[in-house]
Amino acid sequence: MANAYETLAVERSGRIATIWMNRPEVFNAFNEQLITDLHQACVELDGDASVRVVVLAGRGKHFSAGADLNWMKRASTYGEDENLADARRFAGMLRALSDMSKPTIARVQGAALGGGTGLAAACDMAVATDDASFSTSEVKFGIIPAVISPFVLRAIGPRHALRLFQSAERVDAARALAMGLVGEVVSAEQLDAAVARLAETLVAGAPDAQKAAKDLISAVNGRPIDDTVSEETARRIARRRATAEARDGIAAFLEKRPPAWLQ
After folding, report:
1. Pairing with 256, which of 6, 13, 133, 160 sits 20 to 30 Å away (CA)?
2. Among 6, 80, 138, 200, which one carries the catalytic annotation?
C-alpha cells in the first residue's frame, strides 16, 4: 500500500498506520488526485483489522496549505454542476476520514489552512507544533468554508466559527488549543514522540468499544438529557457488557493478564 498512491505514502509501525500527504513542493495543497487518494486510503485502512490507529500527516514544512491554486483556478471556470460534483468528492473524502471506525490523529506542523484546517478537524484528535497555524481563509477568495464547516463546528463550536469563518484570520497553536481545534501542543522536536504516545495509548483500548464510543458521541451530542437519551445510553452499555470483547476485557483486568486484542 505504501506505493499505491500518486500523492500519498502510507507507512505502518505495528498496529499504527500513517497517511503522509506527499506534495511538499506545494505544502501538501490538495487537488483532485490528493482528494481521491485520501478517500481511497481511508477506506482501505478502515477495512484493515490489523490497523488500530490512523495518523494523518504532511511531508515537509507544512501540514496542508489547503486547496491547490491550479485546482482553484480550474474550479473557477466550472459551471454549477461541475462545481457540485467537485465539492461532493471533497465532502466524501472528509466523511471517509471522519467516519473511520478506528481512532484518527492529525499530526500538524506549520500551516493548516482552509481545507487543511478541515482535515485536522475531521480527525478525532490533533497534535500540533507550537508554531502551527490555522485559518478558514475562504472568504478572502470570495467563497465559504462550506464542506469543512461541519467538522470545524464540531471541534470549536458556533461562537468561534462565526468569527473565524468571517474574519479568515490566522489562529496560532495556543489559540487553537484553547478553542478545541487541537488537543495537544508540543515543540517540533517533540511532535513525533507525542503522536506516538497518543497512538500507543489508543492501541491499548478495545477496538469494538472504541468504535461504539465514537458512535455514542454522535448519538447523544446536542440532544437534551431526557428519558429517551437516558434509555438509549442504558441500552448501549447493556449491549456492550454482553459482548465477548467486554467479557474478556473485564476478565483480563481481574486476572491481571493482557486482553485478547493486545495478544
Report:
1. 13
2. 138
